[in-house]
Design goal:
The complex is a heterodimer of chains A (72) and B (366). With 72 residues, chain A is an alpha+beta fold. Chain A contains 2 helices and 4 strands; from the N terminus they run βαβαββ. Chain B has 366 residues and is mostly helical. The chains are: A alpha+beta (72), B mainly alpha (366).
Chain lengths: 72, 366
């Protein structure tokens, strides 16, 4: 139940990054989802989507990359 | 600066952008832009295409400063907030033809989604048919997205590649200000390009400085708030997110209020400015546009703003719009106030077929 998964949505057009997150969150096995993003738009859209789903969202900068940590 | 940035990134962001865009669009009409065409990404790219002589429809030729401002405003915002990230490589040729056909569809309806909202806000009921068509096109696009549709990932690119479109817009601005005439007629008298219409919609424009300023403000706000008329409908239908839709609503309401204040409201189907009442082709023209925009990831305005951020694929879409506009007028595809043209409907069907094939067969390989 304590599974962490990382997905990479860099380079995808709207709204595919959010759809990727939606698909992963439908998988009940995942407790923490880490999402690698590359644009401000994806970051905001995913944060808003996950927050609306009732998840806890944390944004971390890893070098020049942004990782969104979604916990439920 | 940080406070403004946070506000624009918040839930209020698209609403603020919508209020500005709706009110400024009506003011542009008051100051000289064509009726219900304060802002139209499709019409203005078409006019610019004509000014360069890519098509010779004499009534619709003018380098529109609003388009230049959109891209440069977004460029400035992206630079200011460290979001200028040159990138490219996500099915460029397909995006070119999505832009090409989106423009053909828009010119069969006579407007982009922005103008559809502006037309409705001034009482043009034909816009309702167009907007229903737009939503139908977006809905089909959503079905493809749910089924795994993707044009693939872009890659980060050299800084220089992101500077091309801002440079092109700067050159267009210089060409507009100087309005040189490169061509010569049979008697060696200078004629355009640069062409500027003397009659028709192309001859109607607000003062250059004002148009440019509005374009810059809208470009800046839209880049920060991710304002997108197609994303607005898409996100409601796809993930029940009203974030962008609230911006669209604010855009409509502010245009409605300003049209009311300035006495510009005329409710009905007939005799609307630069519009026709051919319902089937209003519907299908916008369906084609809506589908093409959804497959490309955003409305024509959004494609211009993304180009300002350095998105080379969005830039290719915009270039496709320029060529689509040229073909629309050279091949007699664009509608007139009398209705759809002889060949426009065939082009819409061809465009729909193209988009359906792309929608069915393009999937992310991963």
């Amino acid at each position: 139940m304590s599974e962490t998964k990382r997905i990479d949505v860099r380079g995808l057009s709207c709204p595919q990054p959010v759809l990727c997150v939606q698909k992963e969150l439908q998988n009940s096995e995942i407790k923490t989802l880490e999402v690698l993003v590359d644009t401000g738009t994806s970051r905001e859209n995913i944060r808003r989507f996950a927050t609306n789903m009732g998840c806890r969202v944390q944004i971390e900068e890893e070098g020049d990359q942004t990782v969104i940590k979604i916990e439920r | 600066m940080k406070a403004i940035s946070n506000l624009l990134s918040s839930r209020m962001g698209p609403v603020i952008a919508g209020i500005f865009i709706g009110s400024l669009a009506v003011i542009l009409v008051i100051l000289g832009n064509p009726g219900n065409m304060g802002i139209c990404a499709a019409c203005f790219v078409r006019d610019t295409s004509g000014a360069l002589g890519l098509h010779r429809a004499a009534a619709v030729q003018y380098i529109r400063p609003e388009i230049i401002g959109f891209l440069l405003g977004s460029f400035v915002a992206a630079l200011t907030f460290k979001e200028f990230k040159p990138r490219a490589g996500s099915s460029p040729v397909i995006r070119f033809f999505l832009g090409f056909f989106a423009m053909i569809g828009a010119l069969v309806f006579l407007g982009c989604p922005w103008r559809a909202i502006l037309r409705l806000s001034a009482g043009d009921l034909n816009a309702i048919v167009g907007i229903i068509g737009l939503v139908a096109g977006i809905y089909v696009g959503i079905l493809f997205l749910k089924n795994g549709f993707s044009l693939g990932r872009n890659q980060s690119a050299n800084k220089f590649s992101g500077l091309i479109m801002p440079a092109v817009m700067t050159v267009l601005l210089i060409l507009l200000v100087l309005s040189p005439k490169f061509g010569r007629d049979a008697t060696q008298q200078p004629i355009g390009p640069i062409f500027i219409s003397t009659t028709g919609p192309g001859s109607m424009y607000a003062p250059l400085i004002f148009s440019l300023l509005v374009g810059l403000i809208v470009g800046f706000l839209a880049q920060r708030t991710r304002f997108c008329t197609v994303g607005a409908f898409r996100d409601v239908l796809l993930i029940k997110d009203f974030h962008l839709f609230n911006g669209l609503l604010a855009f409509f309401v502010s245009a409605l209020i300003f049209n009311f204040i300035f006495g510009k409201i005329n409710i009905g189907f007939a005799n609307q400015p630069i519009a026709h009442s051919d319902g089937i082709w209003n519907f299908l023209g916008m369906s084609l546009s809506g589908l093409a925009y959804t497959l490309a990831g955003g409305c024509p305005g959004r494609q211009i703003f993304l180009s300002g951020e350095g998105d080379g694929d969005a830039s290719i879409f915009v270039l496709g719009m320029f060529i689509g506009a040229a073909f629309s007028h050279n091949f007699n595809l664009a509608s007139s106030p009398a209705g759809a043209s002889i060949y426009g409907p065939y082009a819409v069907i061809a465009g729909l077929a193209f988009c359906l094939i792309i929608g069915i067969f393009m999937k992310d390989k991963r």
